[in-house]
Amino acid sequence: MMATVDPMVLSWHQRASRCKGRQRPFTARDLACLSPRFTRPEPIMAMTFGTPEIAQAQTPIPRLPARAERAESFEGVESDMQDNIWTDFAKSYDQIIPQLNCYQQMLTKILRDTEGRRTVIDAGCGTGLVSQALIDRGHQVVGFDNNSAMLQLAHDKKADAPDEAGDRWTVMAGPVERFPSQVVSDADAVVLNNVLFYVRDAESALREVFSHLKPGGVVVATGPKRRPDLRKVLRHSIAEWQAEGRYTEALQAAVDHHTICAQKLTTDPNEMVTFFEVDELVDTLRRLGFSRPLAADGDDYYGENYYVCMQK
Ligand SMILES: C[S@@+](CC[C@H](N)C(=O)[O-])C[C@H]1O[C@@H](n2cnc3c(N)ncnc32)[C@H](O)[C@@H]1O
Prior knowledge:
Number of helices: 14
Bound molecules: S-adenosylmethionine
Number of strands: 8
Low-confidence stretches: 1-72
Mean pLDDT: 81
Order of helices and strands: HHHEHHHEHEHHEEHEHHHEHE
Radius of gyration: 19 Å
CATH architecture of the domain at 76-228 and 272-311: 3-Layer(aba) Sandwich
CATH class of the domain at 76-228 and 272-311: Alpha Beta
Structural class: alpha/beta
InterPro entries: Methyltransf_11 (IPR013216), SAM-dependent_MTases_sf (IPR029063)
Distance between the termini: 37 Å
GO molecular function: methyltransferase activity
CATH superfamily of the domain at 76-228 and 272-311: Vaccinia Virus protein VP39
Enzyme class: transferase
Largest sheet: 8 strands, mixed
Shape: globular
GO biological process, one term: methylation
Domain Methyltransferase type: 122-220
């Protein structure tokens, strides 16, 4: 099945997987260095998430260097940074996530709902995939996250951007429950793309969103409606990649690494903590002061995710 993807997103997406410094795509050889498991071709279509077979097959994944050893430091409150599961996800995140048609479809909706809204806060920006697409559309973007490894990749994207784009892009450290003090308080839009599921006190984050928006500004929040079936998402995605002839060895290797991280994410009850049904999130946002839903559906990620855009 070919997905309809906004051509702007596609051109950005192709650029995002370019071979450059630390951003070059994972190859099978890279992953073989990480773990002997990656040298074995796995029957990927027959993956069984959360089963003892997968658990036994896991070998420890080396961690990225500790924060103190990394070259970059970020604006923001360093003590708020977390060394958590996203440190491991960062190793394959940009090799797999932008390739997912379901991610691109959600991104297309985010670009639609932020169009014409100049200043956008990308809260929980991760590696900067949404920020980069917004920058390419001419927005002013402030992205922040509380995981150094993810944020480093956002920082690298900003560093690679042309000067004019880099001047519109701020990357900083901080938690979504308490936005960094340098973040603008009169944004036109705030995006929380696939972030709230990891946040225990999601209401604090949504209150912060409200207080950082100008009247008429919008929040876009997305995430899983319930503990997600990531096996289903990957099964669909792999079938699409195969049909499109782009299921390369490097992508298979990235899927393999992502699968191991995702297994812990989805089975450890302390990892994914907050889910919303569409109506439940709309009601919550209304209670916090938001007025009008502009978009609200549960279609993304093959029916696993909510997508809500609501106006202050
Ligand atoms: C699934 S990733 C999504 C990243 C990005 N929004 C995207 O669309 O690619 C989730 C991100 O949320 C970040 N995150 C989770 N909880 C957070 C918190 N309390 N404060 C800041 N960032 C958080 C993680 O570090 C991770 O980078």
